[in-house]
Amino acid sequence: MTLEKGFEPRLGRDGVTVTGRDIEMLRAIDEQGSMSGAADALGRSYPHLQRRVDEIEGAFGPLTTRVRGGSDGGGTALTDEARDLIRQFDRLRVELSGVTSVTESIVPGTVVARDGELATVETDAGEMAARVPDGSREVEIAIRSDAVVLMDPETAAEGHTSLRNQLSGTVSRVETADAVSTVTVTVAEGIDIEAVVTEESRERLGLREGRDVVAAFKTTAARAIATDF
Questions:
Q1: Which of 34, 61, 187, 217 could make an S-S bridge to 81, C-beta 3.0–4.6 Å?
Q2: C-beta separation of 76 from 34 below 8 A
């Protein structure tokens, strides 16, 4: 994949360019639960949305899946590929803004299980999966703020993510600078996780002090160093 940088964020692959308008469309599909609902909410035509989804899927893979059953007869949901595309776009937007530095959150813990390079680490915030050096037991896990995704607890409970590490917490601080914000989530006493989010995401999730959220991130984004030398 190539990242095309200009005045506005763009993601390009195989001749298809994804813009903020496309990301807005995907978020509307997610929020409305259907293609037709997204078209109405955005004031666009259903055929246009369908064609655009098909175009992007040709380069980036499946973006939507049909959800059947329920009182409303089913609808449309985003795939993991679509959610990953949204995260990539948000990260690029943060990079282009140039106003917020990437930080690392440090979480101490104890290795309780291991599968090769990956291990399960018990922390005060709960179990976490991370890359851990061989032979380590007492460790500190570093998580980059641009790798953390903040989610509504209900969305996380419904399983709308493939991210293995999910820590429940409360927003304790929000620092806003132009197009992006650094959100601090307290996940246990003395343990904070920082996340860099766009202003659009902050407003959509209603991120403010006291808001309950889930901080999620991939196992590969959690890197541990040994402290039991």
A1: 61
A2: yes
Give me the sign of the Cα torsion angle 141, 153, 203, 184: negative
- Spatial contact of 215 and 169, defined as CB atoms under 8 Å apart: yes
Residue for token pair 């064609």: 51
From the list 176, 146, 166, the residue with the least C-alpha distance to 215 is: 166
Contact indicator for 65, 57 with CB cutoff of 8 Å? no
Ramachandran class of 210: left when φ > 0, alpha when ψ lies in -120 to 50, beta otherwise: left
Check residue 146 and report its DSSP letter.
G
| Residue from 183, 153, 182, 179 nearest 166 by CA | 153
pLDDT in tens, 95-129: 666 545 678 899 999 999 998 889 999 999 999 99
